[in-house]
Protein backbone atom coordinates (compact mmCIF):
# COMPACT_ATOMS: atom_id res chain seq x y z
CA UNK A 1 0.00 0.00 0.00
CA UNK A 2 1.20 3.51 -0.85
CA UNK A 3 0.12 6.44 1.35
CA UNK A 4 -1.06 9.17 -1.05
CA UNK A 5 -2.05 11.57 1.75
CA UNK A 6 1.56 12.70 2.09
CA UNK A 7 4.28 13.91 -0.24
CA UNK A 8 4.18 15.79 -3.52
CA UNK A 9 0.92 15.43 -5.43
CA UNK A 10 2.64 16.04 -8.76
CA UNK A 11 5.16 13.35 -7.89
CA UNK A 12 2.35 10.91 -7.07
CA UNK A 13 0.57 11.69 -10.35
CA UNK A 14 3.72 11.38 -12.45
CA UNK A 15 4.75 8.13 -10.77
CA UNK A 16 1.33 6.49 -11.15
CA UNK A 17 0.42 7.73 -14.61
CA UNK A 18 3.14 6.00 -16.70
CA UNK A 19 2.24 2.44 -15.63
CA UNK A 20 -1.44 3.26 -16.13
CA UNK A 21 -0.87 4.66 -19.61
CA UNK A 22 1.37 1.76 -20.60
CA UNK A 23 -1.36 -0.66 -19.56
CA UNK A 24 -4.04 1.24 -21.47
CA UNK A 25 -1.92 1.81 -24.55
CA UNK A 26 -1.02 -1.85 -24.76
CA UNK A 27 -4.72 -2.72 -24.70
CA UNK A 28 -5.44 -0.13 -27.39
CA UNK A 29 -2.51 -1.37 -29.46
CA UNK A 30 -3.99 -4.83 -29.21
CA UNK A 31 -7.27 -3.55 -30.68
CA UNK A 32 -5.39 -1.70 -33.42
CA UNK A 33 -3.41 -4.83 -34.25
CA UNK A 34 -6.67 -6.75 -34.59
CA UNK A 35 -7.93 -4.09 -37.00
CA UNK A 36 -4.63 -4.14 -38.89
CA UNK A 37 -4.78 -7.86 -39.60
CA UNK A 38 -8.54 -7.85 -40.13
CA UNK A 39 -8.15 -5.05 -42.71
CA UNK A 40 -6.76 -7.65 -45.10
CA UNK A 41 -10.16 -9.36 -45.06
CA UNK A 42 -11.99 -6.39 -46.58
CA UNK A 43 -14.07 -3.37 -45.60
CA UNK A 44 -16.97 -5.44 -44.30
CA UNK A 45 -14.69 -7.24 -41.85
CA UNK A 46 -13.13 -3.97 -40.63
CA UNK A 47 -16.51 -2.29 -40.27
CA UNK A 48 -17.93 -5.35 -38.52
CA UNK A 49 -15.12 -5.61 -35.98
CA UNK A 50 -15.17 -1.84 -35.37
CA UNK A 51 -18.95 -1.74 -34.89
CA UNK A 52 -18.84 -4.86 -32.70
CA UNK A 53 -16.14 -3.20 -30.63
CA UNK A 54 -18.63 -0.46 -29.83
CA UNK A 55 -20.60 -3.07 -27.86
CA UNK A 56 -17.56 -3.08 -25.59
CA UNK A 57 -18.63 0.39 -24.42
CA UNK A 58 -21.79 -1.14 -22.98
CA UNK A 59 -19.86 -3.90 -21.24
CA UNK A 60 -17.33 -1.32 -20.07
CA UNK A 61 -20.24 0.48 -18.46
CA UNK A 62 -20.78 -2.54 -16.22
CA UNK A 63 -17.04 -2.82 -15.63
CA UNK A 64 -16.93 0.80 -14.54
CA UNK A 65 -19.71 0.15 -12.04
CA UNK A 66 -17.41 -2.27 -10.23
CA UNK A 67 -14.12 -0.55 -10.98
CA UNK A 68 -15.15 2.94 -9.91
CA UNK A 69 -17.04 1.71 -6.84
CA UNK A 70 -14.03 -0.36 -5.78
CA UNK A 71 -11.48 2.43 -6.35
CA UNK A 72 -13.50 5.07 -4.50
CA UNK A 73 -14.48 3.02 -1.45
CA UNK A 74 -11.15 1.22 -1.04
CA UNK A 75 -9.29 4.55 -1.40
CA UNK A 76 -11.52 6.15 1.25
CA UNK A 77 -10.88 3.20 3.58
CA UNK A 78 -7.13 3.45 3.00
CA UNK A 79 -7.26 7.18 3.77
CA UNK A 80 -9.09 6.41 7.03
CA UNK A 81 -6.55 3.63 7.76
CA UNK A 82 -9.46 1.14 7.84
CA UNK A 83 -7.95 -2.00 6.33
CA UNK A 84 -10.87 -4.23 7.32
CA UNK A 85 -13.36 -2.16 5.32
CA UNK A 86 -10.99 -2.05 2.35
CA UNK A 87 -10.87 -5.85 2.28
CA UNK A 88 -14.63 -6.19 2.71
CA UNK A 89 -15.29 -3.90 -0.25
CA UNK A 90 -12.73 -5.76 -2.37
CA UNK A 91 -14.16 -9.21 -1.69
CA UNK A 92 -17.75 -8.12 -2.25
CA UNK A 93 -16.62 -6.56 -5.54
CA UNK A 94 -15.11 -9.90 -6.52
CA UNK A 95 -18.47 -11.60 -5.95
CA UNK A 96 -20.20 -8.97 -8.10
CA UNK A 97 -17.57 -9.42 -10.83
CA UNK A 98 -18.49 -13.10 -11.14
CA UNK A 99 -22.20 -12.26 -11.41
CA UNK A 100 -21.60 -9.52 -13.96
CA UNK A 101 -19.32 -11.77 -16.01
CA UNK A 102 -21.98 -14.49 -16.26
CA UNK A 103 -24.59 -11.88 -17.21
CA UNK A 104 -22.31 -10.61 -19.98
CA UNK A 105 -21.86 -14.08 -21.46
CA UNK A 106 -25.58 -14.81 -21.55
CA UNK A 107 -26.53 -11.40 -22.95
CA UNK A 108 -23.69 -11.44 -25.48
CA UNK A 109 -24.60 -14.79 -26.98
CA UNK A 110 -28.28 -13.81 -27.16
CA UNK A 111 -28.01 -10.24 -28.47
CA UNK A 112 -24.92 -10.09 -30.70
CA UNK A 113 -26.75 -10.58 -33.97
CA UNK A 114 -29.70 -8.24 -33.19
CA UNK A 115 -27.21 -5.53 -32.19
CA UNK A 116 -25.20 -5.87 -35.39
CA UNK A 117 -28.36 -5.79 -37.50
CA UNK A 118 -29.27 -2.48 -35.87
CA UNK A 119 -25.98 -0.68 -36.63
CA UNK A 120 -24.32 -2.38 -39.63
CA UNK A 121 -24.47 -1.04 -43.18
CA UNK A 122 -24.89 -4.41 -44.95
CA UNK A 123 -25.31 -8.14 -44.33
CA UNK A 124 -21.59 -8.91 -44.73
CA UNK A 125 -20.81 -6.44 -41.94
CA UNK A 126 -23.53 -8.01 -39.78
CA UNK A 127 -21.99 -11.46 -40.19
CA UNK A 128 -18.43 -10.29 -39.51
CA UNK A 129 -19.39 -8.33 -36.40
CA UNK A 130 -21.55 -11.12 -35.00
CA UNK A 131 -18.86 -13.76 -35.39
CA UNK A 132 -16.28 -11.49 -33.80
CA UNK A 133 -18.54 -10.70 -30.83
CA UNK A 134 -19.34 -14.35 -30.12
CA UNK A 135 -15.64 -15.21 -29.88
CA UNK A 136 -14.81 -11.99 -28.02
CA UNK A 137 -17.47 -12.38 -25.29
CA UNK A 138 -15.34 -14.62 -23.01
CA UNK A 139 -12.70 -11.86 -22.95
CA UNK A 140 -15.29 -9.27 -21.91
CA UNK A 141 -16.69 -11.57 -19.21
CA UNK A 142 -13.24 -12.28 -17.72
CA UNK A 143 -12.35 -8.60 -17.64
CA UNK A 144 -14.76 -7.97 -14.77
CA UNK A 145 -12.53 -9.90 -12.39
CA UNK A 146 -9.33 -8.30 -13.68
CA UNK A 147 -10.97 -4.86 -13.42
CA UNK A 148 -11.81 -5.39 -9.75
CA UNK A 149 -8.32 -6.63 -8.90
CA UNK A 150 -6.63 -3.78 -10.79
CA UNK A 151 -8.98 -1.20 -9.25
CA UNK A 152 -8.28 -2.38 -5.71
CA UNK A 153 -4.55 -2.10 -6.34
CA UNK A 154 -4.90 1.37 -7.87
CA UNK A 155 -6.91 2.53 -4.83
CA UNK A 156 -3.97 1.56 -2.63
CA UNK A 157 -1.55 3.48 -4.87
CA UNK A 158 -0.15 0.37 -6.60
CA UNK A 159 -0.35 0.34 -10.40
CA UNK A 160 2.75 -1.43 -11.72
CA UNK A 161 1.62 -5.09 -11.34
CA UNK A 162 -1.59 -4.48 -13.30
CA UNK A 163 0.38 -2.72 -16.02
CA UNK A 164 2.85 -5.59 -16.35
CA UNK A 165 0.08 -8.17 -16.52
CA UNK A 166 -1.82 -6.17 -19.15
CA UNK A 167 1.31 -5.65 -21.20
CA UNK A 168 2.15 -9.35 -21.19
CA UNK A 169 -1.43 -10.29 -22.07
CA UNK A 170 -1.35 -7.87 -25.00
CA UNK A 171 1.93 -9.31 -26.24
CA UNK A 172 0.24 -12.71 -26.23
CA UNK A 173 -2.73 -11.29 -28.11
CA UNK A 174 -0.52 -9.62 -30.70
CA UNK A 175 1.40 -12.87 -31.20
CA UNK A 176 -1.79 -14.88 -31.62
CA UNK A 177 -3.58 -12.40 -33.92
CA UNK A 178 -1.83 -13.20 -37.24
CA UNK A 179 -1.75 -16.91 -36.40
CA UNK A 180 -5.48 -17.14 -35.72
CA UNK A 181 -6.79 -14.43 -38.09
CA UNK A 182 -4.62 -15.13 -41.15
CA UNK A 183 -3.38 -18.64 -40.39
CA UNK A 184 0.32 -17.81 -40.18
CA UNK A 185 2.25 -21.02 -39.54
CA UNK A 186 -0.88 -23.18 -39.36
CA UNK A 187 -2.61 -22.69 -42.68
CA UNK A 188 -5.97 -22.49 -40.87
CA UNK A 189 -7.21 -18.90 -41.05
CA UNK A 190 -10.14 -18.18 -38.73
CA UNK A 191 -10.74 -14.61 -39.96
CA UNK A 192 -12.66 -12.33 -37.61
CA UNK A 193 -13.33 -15.28 -35.29
CA UNK A 194 -9.57 -15.53 -34.80
CA UNK A 195 -9.44 -11.88 -33.68
CA UNK A 196 -12.01 -12.53 -30.96
CA UNK A 197 -10.41 -15.82 -29.92
CA UNK A 198 -6.94 -14.27 -29.64
CA UNK A 199 -8.31 -11.62 -27.28
CA UNK A 200 -10.16 -14.19 -25.17
CA UNK A 201 -7.08 -16.37 -24.75
CA UNK A 202 -4.90 -13.39 -23.84
CA UNK A 203 -7.39 -12.03 -21.27
CA UNK A 204 -7.70 -15.49 -19.69
CA UNK A 205 -3.93 -15.74 -19.25
CA UNK A 206 -3.81 -12.18 -17.88
CA UNK A 207 -6.53 -12.95 -15.32
CA UNK A 208 -4.58 -15.98 -14.12
CA UNK A 209 -1.40 -13.92 -13.73
CA UNK A 210 -3.15 -11.19 -11.74
CA UNK A 211 -4.78 -13.83 -9.55
CA UNK A 212 -1.37 -15.35 -8.88
CA UNK A 213 -0.03 -11.93 -7.86
CA UNK A 214 -2.83 -11.47 -5.33
CA UNK A 215 -2.40 -14.95 -3.88
CA UNK A 216 1.38 -14.75 -3.53
CA UNK A 217 2.41 -11.10 -3.16
CA UNK A 218 -0.44 -8.73 -2.29
CA UNK A 219 -0.86 -8.13 1.44
CA UNK A 220 -3.06 -5.07 2.07
CA UNK A 221 -6.14 -6.35 0.23
CA UNK A 222 -6.56 -10.08 -0.20
CA UNK A 223 -9.05 -12.76 -1.15
CA UNK A 224 -11.01 -13.79 1.95
CA UNK A 225 -13.57 -16.54 1.22
CA UNK A 226 -15.31 -15.75 4.53
CA UNK A 227 -16.26 -12.38 3.04
CA UNK A 228 -17.71 -13.82 -0.17
CA UNK A 229 -21.20 -14.33 1.24
CA UNK A 230 -23.35 -11.67 -0.46
CA UNK A 231 -23.78 -8.60 1.73
CA UNK A 232 -26.37 -6.40 0.08
CA UNK A 233 -25.47 -3.36 2.17
CA UNK A 234 -21.95 -3.45 0.74
CA UNK A 235 -23.32 -4.02 -2.74
CA UNK A 236 -25.42 -0.86 -2.34
CA UNK A 237 -22.33 1.08 -1.30
CA UNK A 238 -20.43 -0.09 -4.38
CA UNK A 239 -23.34 0.43 -6.76
CA UNK A 240 -24.23 3.88 -5.39
CA UNK A 241 -20.80 5.08 -6.48
CA UNK A 242 -20.37 2.85 -9.51
CA UNK A 243 -23.73 2.95 -11.26
CA UNK A 244 -23.60 6.61 -12.32
CA UNK A 245 -20.06 6.08 -13.64
CA UNK A 246 -21.26 3.02 -15.52
CA UNK A 247 -24.06 5.14 -16.90
CA UNK A 248 -21.41 7.42 -18.37
CA UNK A 249 -20.11 4.54 -20.50
CA UNK A 250 -23.67 3.55 -21.41
CA UNK A 251 -24.10 7.10 -22.70
CA UNK A 252 -20.94 6.65 -24.75
CA UNK A 253 -22.44 3.46 -26.19
CA UNK A 254 -25.50 5.43 -27.29
CA UNK A 255 -23.27 8.17 -28.68
CA UNK A 256 -21.24 5.71 -30.76
CA UNK A 257 -24.31 3.79 -31.90
CA UNK A 258 -25.79 7.03 -33.25
CA UNK A 259 -22.58 7.70 -35.18
CA UNK A 260 -22.63 4.24 -36.79
CA UNK A 261 -26.31 4.61 -37.61
CA UNK A 262 -25.81 8.01 -39.24
CA UNK A 263 -22.80 6.75 -41.20
CA UNK A 264 -24.62 3.64 -42.43
CA UNK A 265 -25.97 5.61 -45.40
CA UNK A 266 -22.40 6.29 -46.53
CA UNK A 267 -21.53 2.57 -46.69
CA UNK A 268 -19.09 0.17 -45.06
CA UNK A 269 -16.03 2.20 -46.07
CA UNK A 270 -17.26 5.20 -44.06
CA UNK A 271 -17.94 3.04 -41.00
CA UNK A 272 -14.55 1.38 -41.37
CA UNK A 273 -12.78 4.74 -41.65
CA UNK A 274 -14.56 6.03 -38.58
CA UNK A 275 -13.67 2.84 -36.68
CA UNK A 276 -9.98 3.22 -37.52
CA UNK A 277 -9.94 6.95 -36.72
CA UNK A 278 -11.76 6.40 -33.43
CA UNK A 279 -9.28 3.74 -32.31
CA UNK A 280 -6.31 5.96 -33.17
CA UNK A 281 -7.90 8.91 -31.38
CA UNK A 282 -8.44 6.73 -28.34
CA UNK A 283 -4.77 5.76 -28.42
CA UNK A 284 -3.45 9.33 -28.43
CA UNK A 285 -5.87 10.29 -25.63
CA UNK A 286 -4.52 7.56 -23.37
CA UNK A 287 -1.76 9.64 -21.68
CA UNK A 288 -4.27 12.30 -20.64
CA UNK A 289 -6.71 9.68 -19.40
CA UNK A 290 -3.94 7.96 -17.42
CA UNK A 291 -3.06 11.21 -15.63
CA UNK A 292 -6.73 11.71 -14.77
CA UNK A 293 -7.03 8.15 -13.48
CA UNK A 294 -3.96 8.65 -11.32
CA UNK A 295 -5.62 11.67 -9.72
CA UNK A 296 -8.66 9.66 -8.60
CA UNK A 297 -7.02 7.50 -5.91
CA UNK A 298 -5.00 10.48 -4.67
CA UNK A 299 -8.19 12.50 -4.25
CA UNK A 300 -9.94 9.49 -2.72
CA UNK A 301 -7.32 8.79 -0.06
CA UNK A 302 -7.11 12.46 0.88
CA UNK A 303 -10.88 12.78 1.00
CA UNK A 304 -11.03 9.75 3.29
CA UNK A 305 -8.33 11.34 5.46
CA UNK A 306 -10.32 14.61 5.68
CA UNK A 307 -7.74 16.70 3.80
CA UNK A 308 -9.82 18.95 1.53
CA UNK A 309 -6.94 21.22 0.56
CA UNK A 310 -5.00 18.32 -1.00
CA UNK A 311 -8.12 17.20 -2.87
CA UNK A 312 -8.38 20.63 -4.51
CA UNK A 313 -4.66 20.70 -5.21
CA UNK A 314 -4.91 17.29 -6.88
CA UNK A 315 -7.58 18.60 -9.25
CA UNK A 316 -5.72 21.79 -10.21
CA UNK A 317 -2.43 20.07 -10.90
CA UNK A 318 -3.96 17.11 -12.71
CA UNK A 319 -6.01 19.45 -14.93
CA UNK A 320 -2.93 21.50 -15.86
CA UNK A 321 -0.86 18.43 -16.71
CA UNK A 322 -3.68 16.84 -18.72
CA UNK A 323 -4.25 20.05 -20.70
CA UNK A 324 -0.57 20.31 -21.60
CA UNK A 325 -0.45 16.67 -22.73
CA UNK A 326 -3.63 16.96 -24.80
CA UNK A 327 -2.32 20.10 -26.53
CA UNK A 328 0.78 18.20 -27.65
CA UNK A 329 -1.27 15.40 -29.19
CA UNK A 330 -3.68 17.87 -30.79
CA UNK A 331 -0.74 19.40 -32.64
CA UNK A 332 0.44 15.92 -33.70
CA UNK A 333 -3.02 15.01 -35.03
CA UNK A 334 -3.23 18.24 -37.00
CA UNK A 335 0.20 18.19 -38.60
CA UNK A 336 1.05 14.49 -38.86
CA UNK A 337 -2.21 12.49 -39.16
CA UNK A 338 -0.60 10.25 -41.76
CA UNK A 339 1.96 9.11 -39.20
CA UNK A 340 -0.84 8.02 -36.87
CA UNK A 341 -3.00 6.31 -39.50
CA UNK A 342 -0.35 4.64 -41.63
CA UNK A 343 -0.92 1.01 -42.55
CA UNK A 344 -4.46 0.42 -41.37
CA UNK A 345 -6.15 0.01 -44.75
CA UNK A 346 -5.29 0.02 -48.44
CA UNK A 347 -8.72 1.33 -49.37
CA UNK A 348 -8.49 5.00 -50.34
CA UNK A 349 -12.10 5.79 -49.42
CA UNK A 350 -11.72 4.29 -45.95
CA UNK A 351 -8.53 6.20 -45.23
CA UNK A 352 -10.00 9.47 -46.54
CA UNK A 353 -12.76 9.17 -43.94
CA UNK A 354 -10.22 8.33 -41.22
CA UNK A 355 -8.05 11.37 -42.09
CA UNK A 356 -11.05 13.70 -42.12
CA UNK A 357 -12.32 12.36 -38.82
CA UNK A 358 -8.98 12.65 -37.02
CA UNK A 359 -8.22 16.18 -38.23
CA UNK A 360 -11.60 17.56 -37.13
CA UNK A 361 -12.35 15.57 -33.99
CA UNK A 362 -8.88 16.09 -32.48
CA UNK A 363 -10.00 19.64 -31.61
CA UNK A 364 -11.98 17.92 -28.85
CA UNK A 365 -8.86 16.79 -27.03
CA UNK A 366 -8.40 19.59 -24.50
CA UNK A 367 -12.09 19.56 -23.57
CA UNK A 368 -12.01 15.78 -23.35
CA UNK A 369 -9.00 15.98 -21.03
CA UNK A 370 -10.94 18.22 -18.64
CA UNK A 371 -13.86 15.79 -18.76
CA UNK A 372 -11.50 12.92 -17.87
CA UNK A 373 -10.05 14.90 -14.96
CA UNK A 374 -13.42 15.95 -13.55
CA UNK A 375 -14.76 12.41 -13.87
CA UNK A 376 -11.81 11.00 -11.92
CA UNK A 377 -12.18 13.65 -9.22
CA UNK A 378 -15.87 12.80 -8.80
CA UNK A 379 -14.83 9.18 -8.35
CA UNK A 380 -12.34 10.23 -5.69
CA UNK A 381 -15.05 12.18 -3.88
CA UNK A 382 -17.35 9.16 -3.97
CA UNK A 383 -20.17 10.91 -5.86
CA UNK A 384 -20.35 10.07 -9.55
CA UNK A 385 -23.91 11.24 -10.25
CA UNK A 386 -22.71 14.57 -11.75
CA UNK A 387 -20.64 12.56 -14.26
CA UNK A 388 -23.80 10.90 -15.48
CA UNK A 389 -25.58 14.26 -15.79
CA UNK A 390 -22.81 15.78 -17.88
CA UNK A 391 -22.62 12.67 -20.12
CA UNK A 392 -26.39 12.74 -20.63
CA UNK A 393 -26.10 16.37 -21.66
CA UNK A 394 -23.53 15.46 -24.30
CA UNK A 395 -25.71 12.66 -25.67
CA UNK A 396 -28.72 14.96 -25.92
CA UNK A 397 -26.83 17.86 -27.49
CA UNK A 398 -25.22 15.50 -30.01
CA UNK A 399 -27.52 12.58 -30.81
CA UNK A 400 -30.77 14.38 -31.54
CA UNK A 401 -29.17 17.08 -33.76
CA UNK A 402 -27.09 14.43 -35.54
CA UNK A 403 -30.15 12.34 -36.35
CA UNK A 404 -31.94 15.46 -37.56
CA UNK A 405 -29.02 16.61 -39.71
CA UNK A 406 -28.80 13.17 -41.33
CA UNK A 407 -32.31 13.66 -42.76
CA UNK A 408 -31.44 16.93 -44.52
CA UNK A 409 -30.63 17.12 -48.25
CA UNK A 410 -26.90 17.48 -48.88
CA UNK A 411 -25.94 16.00 -45.49
CA UNK A 412 -22.18 15.34 -45.21
CA UNK A 413 -20.46 13.20 -42.63
CA UNK A 414 -18.16 16.00 -41.44
CA UNK A 415 -21.23 17.71 -40.01
CA UNK A 416 -21.24 14.92 -37.42
CA UNK A 417 -17.66 15.71 -36.36
CA UNK A 418 -18.25 19.45 -36.05
CA UNK A 419 -21.34 18.79 -33.96
CA UNK A 420 -19.25 16.55 -31.70
CA UNK A 421 -16.85 19.44 -30.99
CA UNK A 422 -19.74 21.62 -29.81
CA UNK A 423 -21.27 18.88 -27.65
CA UNK A 424 -17.95 17.91 -26.05
CA UNK A 425 -17.07 21.54 -25.24
CA UNK A 426 -20.45 22.01 -23.55
CA UNK A 427 -19.92 18.82 -21.54
CA UNK A 428 -16.47 19.99 -20.39
CA UNK A 429 -17.83 23.34 -19.20
CA UNK A 430 -20.68 21.64 -17.34
CA UNK A 431 -18.29 19.09 -15.75
CA UNK A 432 -15.99 21.82 -14.41
CA UNK A 433 -18.94 23.78 -12.98
CA UNK A 434 -20.42 20.67 -11.33
CA UNK A 435 -17.06 19.76 -9.80
CA UNK A 436 -16.58 23.19 -8.23
CA UNK A 437 -20.10 22.95 -6.85
CA UNK A 438 -19.24 19.53 -5.40
CA UNK A 439 -16.10 20.95 -3.79
CA UNK A 440 -18.17 23.59 -2.03
CA UNK A 441 -20.61 20.96 -0.76
CA UNK A 442 -18.32 18.06 0.19
CA UNK A 443 -15.00 19.56 1.22
CA UNK A 444 -16.43 21.15 4.36
CA UNK A 445 -15.49 17.95 6.14
CA UNK A 446 -16.74 17.13 9.62
CA UNK A 447 -13.43 17.78 11.37
CA UNK A 448 -13.10 21.16 9.70
CA UNK A 449 -16.73 22.01 10.48
CA UNK A 450 -16.13 21.32 14.17
CA UNK A 451 -13.13 23.63 14.20
CA UNK A 452 -15.18 26.36 12.52
CA UNK A 453 -18.04 25.89 14.99
CA UNK A 454 -15.71 26.10 17.99
CA UNK A 455 -14.20 29.32 16.61
CA UNK A 456 -17.60 31.01 16.30
CA UNK A 457 -20.04 31.81 13.52
CA UNK A 458 -17.31 32.45 10.92
CA UNK A 459 -17.48 30.23 7.79
CA UNK A 460 -14.93 27.56 7.10
CA UNK A 461 -11.54 28.62 5.78
CA UNK A 462 -11.62 30.32 2.38
CA UNK A 463 -9.31 27.69 0.93
CA UNK A 464 -12.03 25.12 1.48
CA UNK A 465 -14.87 27.24 0.08
CA UNK A 466 -13.52 29.00 -2.97
CA UNK A 467 -13.04 27.11 -6.22
CA UNK A 468 -9.44 26.20 -6.95
Short synopsis of the structure:
The chain is mostly helical and 468 residues long.
Strand coverage percent: under 5%
Question: How many whole angstroms does the radius of gyration measure?
Answer: 22 Å
Based on Cα principal axes, name the global outline.
Answer: globular
| Class derived from helix and strand content | mainly alpha
> Helix and strand succession?
HHHHHHHHHHHHHHH
Q: Compute the separation of the termini in Å.
A: 29 Å
Major beta sheet summary:
none
Work out the number of β strands: 0
Low-confidence stretches: 445-468
Count of runs of 4 or more consecutive helical residues: 15
Number of domains: 1
The helix content is over 70%
Taking all residues together, what is the mean pLDDT? Answer: 84
Description:
The protein has helices spanning 9-38, 43-79, 83-119, 123-155, 160-182, 192-216, 232-263, 268-304, 308-335, 337-341, 348-361, 365-381, 385-405, 414-442, 446-455. By secondary structure, it is mainly α. The protein has one domain (9-445). Helix 2 (43-79) packs antiparallel against helix 3 (83-119), helix 5 runs antiparallel to helix 6 (192-216) and helix 8 (268-304) packs antiparallel against helix 9 (308-335).
What is the fold's blueprint, element by element?
Blueprint (H helix, E strand, L loop, with lengths): L8 H30 L4 H37 L3 H37 L3 H33 L4 H23 L9 H25 L15 H32 L4 H37 L3 H28 L1 H5 L6 H14 L3 H17 L3 H21 L8 H29 L3 H10 L13
Descriptive key words:
mainly alpha, 15 helices, 81% helix, globular
Amino acid sequence: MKDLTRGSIVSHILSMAPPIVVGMITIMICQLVDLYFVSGLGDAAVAGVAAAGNAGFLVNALMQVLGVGTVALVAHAVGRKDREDANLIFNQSVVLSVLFGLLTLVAGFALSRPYMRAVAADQATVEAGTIYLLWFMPALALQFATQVMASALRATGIVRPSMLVQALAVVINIALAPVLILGWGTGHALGVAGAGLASSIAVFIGALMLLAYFLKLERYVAFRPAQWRPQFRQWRRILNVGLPAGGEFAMMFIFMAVVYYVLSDFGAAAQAGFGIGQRVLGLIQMPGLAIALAAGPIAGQNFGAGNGARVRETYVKAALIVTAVMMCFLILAQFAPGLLLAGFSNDQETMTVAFLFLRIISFNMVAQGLIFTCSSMFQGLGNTKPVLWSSATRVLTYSLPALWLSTLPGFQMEYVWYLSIVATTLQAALSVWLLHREFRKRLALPRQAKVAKAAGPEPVAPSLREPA
